[in-house]
Amino acid sequence: MSRLFVNARLLDPANGLDAPGTLLVEAGRIAALNPAAPPADAERIDCAGACLCPGLVDMRVGLREPGEEHKESLATLAACAAAGGVTTLAALPDTDPPLDEPALVEFVARRAASLGVTVIPYGAATKRCEGRELAELGLLREAGAAAFTDGRRAIAEARTMRLALSYAATFGAFIIQHPEEPSLASGGAVTEGFQATMLGLPGIPAAAEAIMVARDIRLAALTGGHVHFGHVSTAEALALIRDAKAKGIRVTCDTAPPYFDLNETAVGEWRTYARLSPPLRAEADRLAVLAALADGTIDAIASDHQPQDTDAKRLPFAQAEPGGVGLETLLAVTLNAVHAGHLPLLDALALLTHRPARLLGVEAGRLAEGAPADLCLFDLDRAWQIRADDLCGNSRNTPFDGRPVQGKVLGTWKAGRRVFG
Amino acid sequence: MADHGFGRQVGKRRHLLGIAGLDPGQIRAALDLAETYISLNRQGGPRDVMRGRTLMNMFFEASTRTRTSFELAGKRLGADVINMSPSGSSVSKGETLIDTAMTLNAMHVDVLVVRHDQSGAAALLAQKLDASVINAGDGTHEHPTQALLDALTIRRHRGTLEDLTVAICGDVLHSRVARSNIHLLTTMGCTVRICAPPTLLPAGAAQLGVEVHTDMRKALAGADVVMMLRLQKERMSRSFVPSSREYFRFYGLDAAKLALAKPDALVMHPGPMNRGVEIDSSVADDLQHSVIQEQVEMGVAVRMAVLDLLTRDMRRNA
Fold it and tell me: How much is the ipTM here?
């Protein structure tokens, strides 16, 4: 069965393509762009001028199965991903039990395969993600782990990080760090500063991020390993990463939409849905994140999707769990930065498609002949308002509730099969 | 501006969740009313103001003075007063806070006085309840009635709050009393100095509109009022300060340091005091300066005034 997408604005950031055209899908793969003689019996999908880009690749998603399926199962995760135009996602291993066993890594990947989204698990960097002994990185890699991380927990010990970086390099894998010096962040709920003082909340200094980033850049240089920093949120850390890249040290990073679309004022008066880890930052940091997206310092935009149920959020602020869902709002909030003139459209899409795909080493994120027909159709201009109640998934803890956005996913195809819209 | 009442409107009721957001007029009105309640309190109070109303004291943290003060204030105004002291580890969890709020709602409590160890707990309850909520201390956020009673005490001695220099000394970082006092005194035109070891100063303190000091001698120089804050023992174990004796040496109020303030300076403390840690007994008990006992008396009058103000809508609508 072949499908022909007609009247599309084809966007392929990997090739700088932005032009009206048609796209032919056959047997789950892209058969041709602008075919001269498309098969007459192909199912025609009229895109009516909307944007057709590669299905999004989200390299940082919190997993709740196994262990906390009431917050999100793989099935609801897949539905959220499809609604957000995401066709490939990399999942953190800090589940319960954590993905520190090859069998668990295989289980997650296999179970998700039937759900219409490619889930690439990260393996635990250390056993039980406890930061002490290295996990079986080689076996986990063979089982399909894309990279290694302790998820939402920083690898605190410099020695452990050193060993992980050098050992993982043997298997061609990188280490993802949650860049936050734990002893400085311990007990903190918001970014340290005037607002934290006014609200009476324990603060985390922005420097906690830069300190960890500086240390790990030094360890990457020492070991020759590749360190990747997740959800980078501060000007100071980004400056360190920019310098390290210029020196040729193997360092990459991603950020998440809250860190370039919101600042600490979104916390308002103890709004627990705006409690994130790392915490929302000062406005100057938000602007620095936008600048680092524009100049290429940041390699990917990831949702940092972290489902938390109502019971975990309807609490006094410092007792509430951190994290926000983000799969469904990933594209729209990123497009806000495009509409505001911070990023060209193709650059923004590159951060959501082929750049993270290349980091993860997966065949995804391109509109190329022979590539999997993972596609996202979106209306670039449609204005709408994010409403927590309208989100799918078991958890609706978005920090963007009420946020007006421009740009909406209309349809998602995974290997040629429609999974949303 | 339609909003002329005291405190803040959330849902159906008015609440006192903090000093931040109150304007000078609201503060002055509360203090003026409290002034009239000082003598009324001594006479046993006007028992019709809250007749038929239910006041619940819900203290998730231990408290003798504040809870008793609210209890007395409520009784003097004729309210039915219920004390609830949830204790044990299960109730310190927030789920119970919301659950408890729902339960209270079903009981039709008119005023809820709440103390909780989490900042924002009173505001959370105000969103969930039909009752008026009075924050009697939430985490390290605010303790508004303490600031009002402190202001009343100062005003009775100095006749005004304007153009006074007030030094607030001690564990400012963890102190809700300090925050409420800073908001109130800066709003009323005082010069406020805060003084603490750097480890116990909150971030962005200067943005609060205060002078920030780490040298107590400079903070006290020429001050009209010296407010001491309680230093909790656990601050030592977490290394905010190395020891109580070192703390007392540099940040404890003794006669020598007090001599740097104005000769008639007032010494205040929200209690309970750690004698020999943040304050020397000779200063605490020196009635030339210390108004610590008077603060307690003002506490009842201020709480009567706050209860009166917050329940005016209920009387009007009754």
Answer: 0.92
